[in-house]
């Protein structure tokens, strides 16, 4: 049951919408599957998510219905892998591993102030360089540095934030470095492959500009109206485990397990801490999570003929703790997905996939105060990928 090129492509790049909506700020799933392809290989893809995240304010804030606050978003990915010799391989991978996109509607004043509403945009970019050593046909040991950038633009508006309504923070794009290491084991005769990859945390110290409207409420608070500062944020360490095996001719089953260390993750801008202490008697974090994320995606891939193949998958994500921040009020998900692959020639293919997410219910809070409940929400993800062997 030795895998041919098409069978490798079915599994290792299957269902490009695999990790569109995950716990915390997690987005791409940080796969290195392209690096584990045989021979020389390149790919490029794009994924799109259309979420619907609606809720209801708590009774203390009027109990009003809240319209969809989840913005559509897309992110690209790309990779190239070169087999430099029988024992050495090189790779370069690009993705956008973490992010957030949300805009609350102009509803009842809970998350808006006049014509302005609570809004968040967080962007990251990752470039991973890899070198692999294959002492035998079965083993592959790999490691390399990771370059990462992060930037953010967030504004808080509405009764949910009390005196903090009117707070803004703009975090300038800043880069930092981390690393990854892992190994893979394969038995080509039975189409078996297993890979374990560890990614380190990456510590950022970014320049930020914070502003509040406290001074307009009380001139005595003018010292809390504007601040330039450094914001510390550490994107989390993670472990990915990828498994596959053939179960019949032209048929593979696979699973991806992922752990992300979100526990105790927090972003604590200086001006927000001072202002929230004044307004609420306790420093408030901009973003924080209380639990680690655990997720699994498992499925089956089938080659129908030399040109067509398909994939079906189911997924589960634990979330990163509940209650959650108002900037991303969901708690994990269940998902199902379908993907198809067309190979006009043996050396290249086109993939497309769609995935439906049942998003977990969550209580949104500011500081330690619950302000809204978000229930019965969903999302739809789409993906497109092109792979080429050279």
Question: How would you characterize the overall build of this protein?
Answer:
The chain is mainly β and 390 residues long. The protein has a single domain (5-389), classed as Beta Barrel (Porin). Helix content is 6%, strand content 57%. The strands form four sheets. It has a 14-stranded antiparallel beta barrel. A five-stranded mixed sheet has the order 3-2-25-24-21, with no helix packed on it. A hairpin with a 4-residue loop joins strand 19 and strand 20. The two termini are 24 Å apart. The model is unreliable at 9-13 (pLDDT under 50).
Going by CATH, the homologous superfamily would be Outer membrane protein transport protein (OMPP1/FadL/TodX)
Head-to-tail CA distance between termini = 24 Å
Helix residue percentage: under 10%
| Strand content bin | over 45%
SS-based structural class? mainly beta
What is the topological layout?
Layout: H1 5-12, E1 41-52, E2 55-57, E3 65-66, E4 73-83, E5 88-95, E6 99-103, E7 112-113, E8 116-117, E9 119-133, E10 139-156, E11 167-187, E12 192-199, E13 202-211, H2 214-217, E14 226-235, E15 238-248, E16 251-260, E17 266-267, H3 270-280, E18 287-288, E19 293-303, E20 308-317, E21 324-325, E22 333-345, E23 348-359, E24 362-366, E25 369-374, E26 377-389
Parallel strand pairs: 21-24
Antiparallel strand pairs: 1-4, 1-26, 2-3, 2-25, 4-5, 5-9, 6-9, 7-8, 9-10, 10-11, 11-12, 11-13, 12-15, 13-14, 15-16, 16-19, 17-18, 19-20, 20-22, 22-23, 23-26, 24-25
